[in-house]
Specification:
The chain has 2 helices and 8 strands, in the order E-H-E-E-E-E-H-E-E-E. The two termini are 29 Å apart. The protein has a 4-stranded mixed β-sheet, with helices on one face. A hairpin with a 5-residue loop joins strand 7 and strand 8. With 128 residues, it is an alpha/beta fold. The longest helix is centred in the first third of the chain and has 11 residues.
C-alpha cells in the first residue's frame, strides 16, 4: 500500500456557527459542501485547503472536551503552511486571534508559531 497525500482532517466543534465563521471568514477556507444531517442533529462542512486537502468540520451535541492540551493521546495539532509567517500573524492579530511568539524549528531552520481555534484546537503556522 502506498499513500499519495492526506485527503482531509476532521474537526469536531462545540459551536458550529462560531467555528464556521472562524474557518471561512478568518482563515479564508472555501466551502466545498455544507450538509445538515437531521438524524444526528449535526452539520458537516467540507472546506478546501490548498489544492489537495480538505477540512471536515463537524458539529455534534455536547461533544466531550479535549482532555489536555496539547499532549492528549490522538491528534496533537493541525499545521498549515504559509509563504510569509509575519504577514499571516499580522493578519490573524487584526482578526483578534492571539498567536504565540514566532519560533525557529531547530531541525529545519523554518519559522513557526501557534494559535487556537474557537475550541482551543492548537493550529500551527509553518513558514515554507
Amino acid at each position: 500500500m502506498q499513500f499519495t497525500r492526506i485527503h482531509h482532517i476532521a474537526i469536531i466543534c462545540s459551536d458550529y456557527e462560531r467555528s464556521k465563521h472562524f474557518y471561512t471568514n478568518i482563515l479564508g477556507f472555501n466551502i466545498i459542501h455544507e450538509q445538515y444531517r437531521k438524524e444526528r442533529n449535526s452539520y458537516k462542512l467540507d472546506l478546501q485547503v490548498g489544492e489537495h486537502t480538505q477540512i471536515e468540520l463537524f458539529s455534534f451535541e455536547n461533544p466531550p472536551k479535549r482532555p489536555s492540551c496539547p499532549e492528549a493521546c490522538g491528534l496533537r495539532h493541525l499545521a498549515l503552511e504559509v509563504d510569509d509567517i509575519d504577514e499571516a500573524v499580522a493578519y490573524l492579530q487584526t482578526q483578534g486571534v492571539a498567536t504565540e511568539p514566532i519560533r525557529i524549528d531547530p531541525v529545519t531552520g523554518k519559522r513557526f508559531t501557534f494559535f487556537r481555534d474557537p475550541d482551543e484546537l492548537p493550529i500551527e503556522l509553518y513558514e515554507r
